[in-house]
Predict the 3D structure of the following.
Amino acid sequence: MKNLIILGAGTAGTTMANLLQKRLKNTEWNIKIIDKNTIHYYQPGFLFLPFDLYKPKQVKKPIEQFIPSGVELIQQEIDKIEVEANEVLLTDGTKVPYDVLIIATGTDIAPQEIDGMLGEHWHQDVFDFYTYTGAKNLRDKLREWKGGELVVHIAEMPIKCPVAPLEFAFLADSFFRNKEMRDKVNITYVTPLGGAFTKPKATEALNYLLEEKGIRIVPDFNIESVDGANKKILDYGGKEVNYDLLVTVPTNMGSPVMERSGIGDDLNFVPTNKATLQTLVKDNIFAIGDATNIPASKAGSVAHFESEILTENVMRYIKDEPLKEDFDGHANCFIETGNGKALLIDFNYTHEPVTGTFPFPGVGPLRLLKESHMNHLGKLAFRWIYWNMLIKGKHIPFVSAQMSEAGKDFSNN
Amino acid sequence: MDKLLAGNNVAVTEDGYLEDFNQWSKEIASEIAAEYGITLGEDHWKVILYIQEQYEKGVPLSIRSIGKSGVVSIKEFYQLFPDGPLKRASKIAGIPKPVSCI
Ligand SMILES: Cc1cc2nc3c(=O)[nH]c(=O)nc-3n(C[C@H](O)[C@H](O)[C@H](O)COP(=O)(O)OP(=O)(O)OC[C@H]3O[C@@H](n4cnc5c(N)ncnc54)[C@H](O)[C@@H]3O)c2cc1C
């Protein structure tokens, strides 16, 4: 018997377990998946949790529930990968040998990377919303907050779901309007980027929305430290921004497992071929989702598109066939803009987000790069799709792994 | 488009980055730097050489990786190339605009 091991049972790992269980012969292959947690979080829900729009139970379910029978779930922390020996070492000392390894350990926040970010003020007036605990503590804070300077902040790129902080600012605007206290709150959006987003076309549309909602933007801000006592953040160039409530997205890093195994880059992301998803570490190691260093968005939708191509490539690798160089960086994200509306963007390695309709050319019903209520419903529907289709490895109708160019206006691209 | 830099017609992008690294020279670098009010000294050159080396090796650059390079600290990098150090240093070094990550 041969062994295929998946590290991490989040979005990407769970999807791969479901897809490969159907493809690999159970008389020839053992499939094992390893995760330290018992809970699978629906992370996109962390955006809604702070505003009491989702309840905790809507964003967490047991990991077990999504692992198909025929796949062994090992609930243990991974210590390191022994690349030479083709073995995974767990913190309890167990060694798990593999023939093929798939790394899907995602990315996590690393607030310790920023001077002064952690301290007494952490989860008192400095919050993250990228973890379940952070989002929930922030919800409790927002329930009773009386207003002042709200600063929404990104420490450094890349971060997963790069639009989430912007959505947070938009939803905060709606939230305080609904509470009839918008006049008591100043919202400032502080980013290391030159504008609202990483892609120029979408930035134009988003900068406009920030202005419309009275959200001030401070671009090109590279944080050096947090001064918790005086409630301000400082950047390397000498700029300062004061806050009463700081909602930050700290540095995002891959798993420390990569550092311990000597295979990560300086943020612990795994060097990976951006078209085949085979790592540059060794032929029998593949990587998917937020854990890789490929220049695609770190998003659940990307992990989904990657999973179809990675499944194909794992099958080819096993049969000793050349890998398909098929992944085009396809990402598809809804951007909540508040008041029950959302934008939708669709892009890949080479094409920026454009205007048009999705998924049916000329029909929609979703509008690309335009605010609409339909898009907001799409975002809400994503939760159902996530739990019931995406991580179970079911194909999502009408949406293909590679980006479609039909129905889109590339004229200004 | 073309831009006159240090007496040569040099192909540059819309935001002023060199299209072809082969057209780069130290004189051109000094002239681009002057547009930002920067006079290139020994420390600037160390950084410029380092990022050109990384670029040739195909290693993606970030402010963080430069801070870890041992050539300059992030703080010094900001002092040498104020405001947008990575963008400015890349433009002066004649390499493409850093792809800000996604
Ligand atoms: C606030 C927020 C909003 C988002 N919104 C969207 C959205 O609207 N649309 C979208 O497409 N995406 C969104 N995302 C991004 C999406 O959630 C992630 O991109 C996706 O979950 C990545 O999947 P993954 O499998 O790579 O990593 P994860 O799902 O994070 O899974 C990694 C797993 O590895 C395990 N692990 C890590 N290290 C170890 C170890 N040493 N030992 C054992 N187990 C380990 C972890 O416990 C975890 O279960 C959002 C994310 C956040 C935080």
